[in-house]
Amino acid sequence: xxxxxxxxxxxxxxxxxxxxxxxxxxxxxxxxxxxxxxxxxxxxxxxxxxxxxxxxxxxxxxxxxxxxxxxxxxxxxxxxxxxxxxxxxxxxxxxxxxxxxxxxxxxxxxxxxxxxxxxxxxxxxxxxxxxxxxxxxxxxxxxxxxxxxxxxxxxxxxxxxxxxxxxxxxx
Length: 171
Known about the structure:
Order of helices and strands: EHHEHHEHEHEHE
Helix content: 25-40%
Strand content: 15-25%
Number of helices: 7
Radius of gyration: 15 Å
Largest sheet: 6 strands, parallel
């Protein structure tokens, strides 16, 4: 079986920075443990914004500057980077929200299964899960809920329920 594990936006700003949450901090060790034992092909995304963030549509809807390229908040968390040190990542994709490049990269890996983990369940995880489900309707797409966290616990649960309704397996 050729499984692709997509690690969404495990960046400092989403863990303990500008948009960090207690839930993300609690989830982090579970994800590190998963990555240390995972045998799937890995693809990472990085939420990436410029200095003009507040002038963008996202910035107007979420006026909290975060993941500005070149800042510490944009970087992958050190524990995540250490967990995958020596494991070849298929690719790191920089993107502002949902990524249209992500399915192109994954298609080249010829997956039998796609699993998503990361942050935030209710924004970038669900957006990218929906893109992947649309592009790969016959490939099982799943989300490991124990290795995700949302903006709030309620919005995390709402996103998981919405993904289930769209035939994304939540485990």
